[in-house]
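Entry 12.
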Amino acid sequence: MIRTLLCLFSATLALIAADQPAGRSFLMLGGVTQIVDAAGKVTWKYPAATRDGEVLPNGNLLLTLSKTKAYPGGAVVEVTRDQKVVWEYKGTQTEVNTAVLLENGNILLTEAGNKPRLLEVARDGSIKVEIPLGCQVTNHHMQSRMARKLPNGHYLVPQDKTVREYDAAGKVVWERQSPESTADNRSFCCLRNAAGHTLISLTVGSHLIEVDPAGKIVWELRDGDLPGVPVNRTTALAWLPNGNIVFSNYAARAPQAKVVEITRDKKVVWTYTDATTQGVHEFQLLDDAGKPLAGVLR
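Predicted 3D structure (tokens):
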């Protein structure tokens, strides 16, 4: 009887272990732009700082570039694996944030500057959608971050200390201000699931919140909630089909975890760190074949 129970217990532990990743492959975006495999090995690098990006179906990468001499207003570029630029949009203001290939073939991006705006840009460079963003204009860098298009055609935009949902005509139809805090609680990423809940990262506040459609906080994570794993300037987010949440700690440096996966009840599943002196601004989880991990919101 005891032997049977021990066997069942061992089998259960094996199943649990099999369901938890030993590591995850992902595209890292920030001061260092690279792809890391599940063993932590760097398999691809790009020699520029980035803000957002993704692996495309054709294997190329779409990247939002930080401003440089070549791109004084920032840019979105599509590059091949041998680093050849095959498409680009040059920013017209202070910087560009967001880079997403939409189902209609357009590229979603946001520009920060005196006229902050969200754009859908066609491959021929023409602007198909332009929505002014109601941001402050005294600090361009802090205006907006990772905008995403929702299945209903609306746009979810983290801007200043608020997350706003704009409809296709540019009207604000939903918003959630950051919680009151002594920290500069600016929103960085925001994801909306099928239940209408919105997951938001608040960078300087080192705080994640999930709110329901009415804006009520139904789940949150703060520094100190994960024993041995600091929560340190949260930026990027991914919401997995099993309910797990992956986030990046932008201010973390080794040995602190730069990317962390947790369960809903705040159990740490997986962490990543490296020896680079740069933080993880954004990331995209990949499968073993190097393609975007299926079913993930990011």
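Annotation: Helices lie at 2-19. Confidence is low (pLDDT under 50) at residues 4-20.
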